[in-house]
Each structure stands twice: as C-alpha cells, then as structure tokens.
Amino acid sequence: MTDTGSRPLFLTPTDPAPAGWHHVVLAKRHLLAGPVAVLVDDLAQWRSVSAGFGERLNGLVLTPSTDEPHCERLSPLAWHLTVPPERVGAAPLLFGGWLEAIGDADAKSQQLFALEHRMERIGREFELTRHDYNELTGRLQHQVQQLLAKEAELGRLNETLEARVVERTADLGRANEGLYQALAELKATQNELLKSAELAHLGALVAGIAHELNTPIGNALTVATALSHETAQLRHERAIGGIRRSSLDRLLDRVDEIALVLEKNLVRAADIIHHTKPLAVDRLSEQRRRFKVAEVIDDTLAALSPQLKRAPVTLALEVDGAVEMDSFPGAFSTVLSNLVTNALTHAFTDRAQGRLQLRAKPCDDGQLEMVFSDDGAGMTPAVLGRIFEPFFTTQLGRGGSGLGLYIAYNQVRRMLGGHISVTSTVGRGTSFRLLLPTVAPQPA
Fold first, then answer.
1. Scanning 59, 169, 253, 359, which has its CA 20 to 30 A from the CA of 15?
2. What is the pLDDT of residues 288-308, one digit of tens each?
3. 57 and 129 share a domain?
4. Cis peptide upstream of residue 16 (ω within 30 degrees of 0)
5. How many independent structural domains does the chain possess?
6. Is 0.70 topped by the overall pTM?
7. How far lies 294's CA from each of 54, 283, 361, in Å?
8. What CATH number does the domain containing 371 carry?
9. C-alpha to C-alpha distances, 231 to 15, 236, 247, nearest whole angstrom
10. Between 172 and 263, residue with greater pLDDT
11. In a domain, 30, yes or no
12. Residue 255 is part of which domain span?
C-alpha cells in the first residue's frame, strides 16, 4: 500500500478492499489530511460519503466501469476517473508517485514558511543588535570626550569599554553566522522544492501519457480476444466433423480486419512512447547534446496532449524544422511545458474557446527566437511585474503553485544562457519572447 508517513493515500469503503487499497469508513479527517485517491462504486456513493466537504478534496475519485475510460473535474483540486474493474489494482502504481509528489510539495511549502518565519525573527534580532552597537558607539564617544581631562580614569575605562566592545562584536558575529546559515538553508530548501515541483509536473505528464496509452492498448486487447474467439470456433468445427470452406474464408477475412486494427493501435501506442521516451530521459538527465528544435517541441507537445485536448483551445505552430541547438533539451522542454501549462491554467478561465501560438525561428546573431502567446485574459501591470517571483500565483488553492514561471525563468537564464521577456494586456492576451543561443554557454 502506498503511504505518506503512516497516512494511506488510496482509500475505499469497499470491504474487502482491492489489492493496494486501504479499507476505511470514509470521514472528513481522511479526505482533508492531504492528497488521496478514493475508490467508490459510483458517484452517488461518493456524494453520500463526502457530503459537506467533498468540494475540498485534493486528489482523485475512481469508479470501476466497463465503459470507455473518461476523466472529469469534480472540483478545482479533485478529478473523477473511470477505470476498468480489472485495472483497479494497478491504480496505486500509476498514481502513487503523483500523489506523493504533491504531498511532498505541500510539506516543503510548510517547511519553507517556517524557515521564512525564522529568518524574520533573526532579522529582527540582527536589527536590535545593530541598534545596540550604534547606541554603544555613541555612548563611548560621549564618554571619551568627558574623560579627556582624567587620564588615570581614562585607562581604566578604556579597558572596560574594550571588553564590552569585544563582547558585543562577538555577539554580532554569532548573529551574522546564524543569519548566513539560515540563508544557506533557505536556498537549499528552495532548490529541493523546485525539484519536487518538477517531479510533480513530470508525474502529471506520466499520468496523462498512461491515459493516452490506455485507449490503443485496450483496443488491441479487445480485437486479440475476438481473434481468439474466432480460432476457437474453427477448432470446434474441426473437432465435430471438419472445417467448411466458408468458415475458413470468414476466419481469413476476420484475421485481415483484426490485423489492421492491431497494427493501427500498436502504431499509435509506439508513437506515444517514441515521443515520450527522449523527453523523459532529457528531463531527468539534464545532459547537453545537439538536437533539432522542432523534434523537442513535438515531443513536449505530445506529452501535453491530454491537457491540450481537455482545454477549449487551438494551438498554431510556426517552427523552422531545420534549426538545431547545442544545448540542454531537458531544460528547453521544461520551459515550453511550463509556459503552456501556465496559459492553460490562467489564460482561459471562464472562456468558451481560446487560441495559443508558438513561433520559433533562427536569428542572424546565432540565437533562436521563440515566441509563445495566447489571446486569453491577460494580466494587470501589478501581476505582470511579479510573475517570475517564486511562489507568486493568482490561483493559490486552485491549481497554481507559483513555481512554474519561476522555474522557466531560471532554466532560461542559468541553463540555456538566454533571455525571457513578457508583455500582456488585460482582455487581449499575453506573449512570452525568448532569445536563446543556439550554442549554450557552459554552466558555471
């Protein structure tokens, strides 16, 4: 069973529970403790057990169904998925990593909040120490002026004052050392949180790709079962007296049909895997290599296809297929993925339809210009000035982490050695412009 600490992630009121699931009498404390997956017989049972707090669920509601698998949103942070009954036991393997990554990201956010609070306290103590030091220095100057006429007392007072200055200086040094240590811990925590956010995003991509693979593989399994049934009928005819020519012809026709369907669905599955494999390797390895920009863009958009299909948008591409880069394809893919995800999350709220556009072409100075734009809601100047700040989001609690554009900004500047800028008008959309060297500089 997949747990977070001692808390089960996969819950069900069904008794006995399927393999990988934890049987509980569902209550508010189970569903609001963190991201979970809940297995119920149908949505009516879900509404019954979650009355009064179901809208606050963060996670998945799964129901077994023999119909075509589908996905729908129940609330801003909850989704309903139907799965074949025989695949219920595999759900913890498919979605466990995603739920754990979300839980880890929430835990890291709480740790960061506590660390920021500690930094504020240390900052106040530092200011108090500095004020004391300045006040002490003023007193010393005043005392020195008064004691110029008393040489005997001056020596004695100097010894006392020097000791006090040394003590205060030592206190200040200890305070500075604590502050530097806190800053180092903050940077380390931020880096861990960024990696958690990237892994959570990659987990969401894997879940979408698994959903995409389910259709062609399921279709292939169906026609393979049909072929098995046809051959069983032919064996039965042979056993009871011989095979008729009409039966053999019918089987051959069915074999041709089934082979065509198998080929079509397996080619589709292989195409999905072909686009996903290099993308996953580049994301995880962060290795530098030479690549065609159009191929990395195609692979990234293929991984995002489940999100794009669910959104009421169209995507127009204008990409020079010949341009190549000697750079970091994983960072390039992460930047593009975060820009697309940000647009789908923020640009088309309460919109019936929208349009995305991606243009990429080489420049004369050895750089690649990439422009990603949408015709969505746009941003106010106040929001526009803060979009690259870490943890800044206008969708807090509704799917926004505040890290997507911050990660994109850092990948463009630090890994790809480029520049990113943005323009936006309320009601008319947003445009991101990236200038990336086709030969990336060596990382520092």
1. 59
2. 899 999 999 998 888 888 888
3. no
4. yes
5. 4
6. no
7. 43, 17, 10
8. 3.30.565.10
9. 39, 9, 10
10. 172
11. yes
12. 207-279
How much of the chain exceeds pLDDT 90, in percent? 19
Residue 444 lies in a domain: no
388 falls within a domain = yes
Task: Name the CA dihedral angle for 107, 109, 112, 116, rounded to a multiple of 10 degrees.
Answer: -130
As a whole-number percent, the residues of the chain with pLDDT over 70 amount to 79
Cα–Cα distance for residue pair 305/208, rounded to 1 Å: 8
Return the residue matching tokens 């997949």.
Answer: 2
**399 and 427 within one domain:** yes
Residue 94 lies in a domain: no
DSSP string covering 99-155 = HHHHHHHHHHHHHHHHHHHHHHHHHHHHHHHHHHHHHHHHHHHHHHHHTTT-HHHHH
Judgement on whether residues 339 and 398 belong to the same structural domain of the protein: yes
State pLDDT tens for residues 175-213.
788 777 777 766 666 566 556 555 555 555 555 565 556
Identify whether the C-beta of residue 411 lies closer than 8 Å to the C-beta of residue 337: no
Residue whose token pair is 């982490």: 401
